[in-house]
């Protein structure tokens, strides 16, 4: 193994991406070193560049990691060198993904099942963490639904309706699949009509045209539900308009979760939260360690979670800046952009 690696650095606040050599990290106690074979791009990556929100530069971005175990830190016994793994990374140079090697806490790492490729699992971590935390963490970090991690809780919410605003987004697709695993029915989602067949294949039972007014949407939902109360809405778009729609759809005692900061204040009989989809955030660790270390590989192998459509970018890490520019220009839809750091 070379003593150095290639990494894509954001050189300064509001700066440019620069490809440079840097150290290969030594895994600490309880950590593993991962040779990254695939990483995906997320909107937050270009937003960090444009908004300058990080404290330390030069910074390595990217938090979707799929690769193989290269080295074990002290005390790690459940993995061996060569194991195929994936994890959501961190915004710290030792744990991010726009580089050839990264470190990760072993207790939060998932194994890649034989029927999934590096590219397929690289599209999962950020959206999986966001969807899972928003659904299953306790208030005020999520909706407080019991996670489907046992026979007692898998399918527990049969005959309970849920509404997912923005079903065709990457997070929306994951929320729909997790909601199906939890047994929710009916599962409503909003999208353009062209996405109907695809979203039904993921588990959505009713696709509502996203152009409907909130009053028309609520009326349609109530008609289908026979006036059964709506107590759960996940807003994966989280504009001011969709947050207003979410609150309008909810019945008294209901709650909604949004992926962006809240722009509206709910009435006293409704609750609203913003999800912080960070795997190693203190209030998420117990929940996400169980998900990644113990459950997600089995769900993938059983086909309970389906892979996203992916597009492979050319030139390894060097292709990432152009990919982020396309995302910022809203030129990517229904597809996760994937880079192969080892091909740099």
Automatic annotation (TrEMBL):
Signal peptide interval: none
GO molecular function: oxidoreductase activity, acting on NAD(P)H
Matches recorded under Pfam families: ADH_N, ADH_zinc_N
Domain (Enoyl reductase (ER)) ranges: 15-338
SUPFAM superfamilies per UniProt: GroES-like (SSF50129), NAD(P)-binding Rossmann-fold domains (SSF51735)
Protein name: Enoyl reductase (ER) domain-containing protein
Organism: Psilocybe cubensis
Lineage: Eukaryota, Fungi, Dikarya, Basidiomycota, Agaricomycotina
């Amino acid at each position: 193994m070379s003593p150095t690696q290639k990494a894509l650095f954001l050189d300064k606040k509001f700066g440019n991406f620069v490809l440079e050599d840097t150290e290969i990290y030594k895994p600490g106690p309880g950590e593993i070193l991962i040779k990254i074979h695939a990483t995906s791009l997320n909107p937050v990556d270009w937003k960090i560049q444009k908004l300058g929100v990080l404290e330390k530069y030069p910074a390595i971005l990217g938090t979707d990691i799929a690769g193989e175990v290269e080295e074990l830190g002290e005390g790690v016994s459940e993995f061996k060198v060569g194991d195929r793994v994936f994890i959501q990374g961190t915004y710290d140079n030792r744990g991010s993904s726009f580089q050839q090697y990264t470190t990760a806490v072993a207790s939060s790492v998932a194994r890649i099942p034989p029927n999934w490729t590096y590219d397929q699992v690289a599209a999962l971590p950020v959206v999986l963490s966001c969807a899972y935390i928003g659904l299953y963490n306790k208030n005020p970090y999520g909706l407080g639904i019991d996670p489907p991690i046992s026979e007692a809780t898998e399918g527990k919410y049969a005959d309970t309706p849920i509404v997912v605003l923005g079903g065709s987004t990457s997070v929306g697709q994951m929320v729909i699949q997790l909601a199906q695993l939890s047994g929710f029915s009916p599962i409503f989602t909003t999208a353009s009509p062209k996405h109907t067949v695809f979203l039904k294949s993921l588990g959505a039972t009713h696709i509502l045209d996203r152009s409907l007014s909130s009053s028309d949407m609520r009326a349609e939902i109530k008609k289908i539900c026979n006036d059964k109360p709506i107590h759960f809405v996940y807003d994966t778009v989280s504009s001011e308009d969709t947050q207003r729609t979410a609150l309008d759809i909810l019945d008294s005692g209901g709650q909604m979760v949004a992926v962006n900061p809240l722009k509206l204040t709910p009435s006293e009989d409704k609750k609203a939260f913003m999800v912080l989809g960070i795997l190693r955030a203190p209030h998420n660790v117990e929940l996400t360690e169980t998900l990644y270390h113990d459950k997600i590989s089995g769900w993938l192998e059983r086909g309970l979670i389906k892979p996203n459509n992916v597009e492979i970018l050319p030139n390894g890490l060097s292709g990432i800046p152009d990919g982020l520019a396309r995302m910022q220009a809203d030129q990517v839809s229904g597809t996760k952009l994937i880079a192969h750091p080892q091909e740099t």
